[in-house]
């Protein structure tokens, strides 16, 4: 792995009463969204083990094993996949498809996902982003997320002023336009404003998550 010179030569940090000396170099790690997503290999390994014990367990137990051991890995940091090319999400979607076939031993995946009430991976990514947007819009989430979004305030009184919309950030700022389009500050308001008004005004987070899953389930699988 390559090493890069650190600009903070005089930085000093104390941890539990012990001084940590600064280093003049920092190790950087290469990362590839298409080949380096670590959950892929671990999910395949878990599916292999579940398949080995499948003949000895009822269908419900197989489904529970997948939801407990594999879904958490598919969902890990999945908001970072928002608005990336479909080829990035495809390997994870194939893992979910394999799991659905493992539960019911059928070939066609969409009816299986409906039966299991599982959101496809792309929908799970949107679910995560919109859940974070809800906490930020209601000022219950982390401060750094709250700072990234603002409520929409029209120039003059309009019906939309009471619709719970979020303001879209300007795109004529410094930086890559493609990266701004994939950022939370752009995607969250865009996807949030597409939700039904009743869903945006849900009073509690658990109720919002339930309503959001139903909305996305119908959007992607019906």
What is the secondary structure topology, with strand pairs?
Elements lengths: L2 E3 L7 E3 L2 E3 L4 E3 L11 H15 L5 H11 L1 H5 L10 H19 L4 H8 L4 H17 L5 H4 L30 H5 L2 H11 L2 H4 L4 H17 L1
Antiparallel strand pairs: 1-4, 2-3
Helix pairs in contact: 1-2, 1-4, 2-4, 4-5, 6-9, 6-11
Describe, in short, the structure shown.
By secondary structure, the chain is mainly alpha-helical. It has eleven helices and four strands, in the order E-E-E-E-H-H-H-H-H-H-H-H-H-H-H.
Major sheet summary line: 2 strands, antiparallel
* Structure annotation, total helices: 11
Give the overall silhouette. Answer: globular
Binned, the helix content reads 40-55%
- Average pLDDT metric: 80
Number of strands: 4
What gap, in angstroms, lies between the N and C termini? 47 Å
- Which ranges are low-confidence, i.e. pLDDT below 50, for 5 or more consecutive residues? 1-8, 26-37
Assembly annotation: single chain
């Amino acid at each position: 792995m390559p090493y890069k010179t650190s600009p903070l030569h005089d930085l000093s940090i104390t941890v539990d009463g012990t001084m940590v000396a600064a280093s003049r170099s920092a190790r950087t790690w290469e990362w590839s969204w298409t080949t380096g997503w670590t959950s892929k290999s671990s999910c395949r390994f878990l599916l292999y083990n579940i398949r080995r014990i499948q003949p000895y367990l009822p269908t419900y137990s197989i489904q529970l094993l997948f939801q407990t051991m594999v879904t958490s890995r598919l969902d890990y940091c999945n908001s970072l996949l928002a608005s990336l090319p479909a080829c990035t999400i495809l390997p994870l979607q194939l893992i979910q498809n394999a799991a659905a076939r493992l539960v019911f031993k059928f070939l066609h995946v969409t009816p299986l996902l409906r039966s299991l009430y599982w959101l496809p991976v792309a929908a799970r990514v949107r679910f995560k982003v919109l859940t974070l947007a809800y906490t930020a819009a209601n000022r219950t989430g982390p401060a750094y997320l709250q700072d990234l979004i603002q409520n929409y305030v029209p120039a003059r009184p309009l019906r939309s002023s009471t619709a719970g919309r979020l303001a879209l950030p300007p795109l004529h700022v410094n930086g890559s336009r493609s990266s701004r389009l994939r950022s939370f500050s752009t995607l969250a308001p865009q996807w949030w404003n597409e939700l039904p008004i009743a869903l945006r005004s849900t009073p509690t987070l658990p109720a919002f998550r339930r309503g959001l899953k139903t909305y996305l389930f119908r959007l992607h699988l019906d």
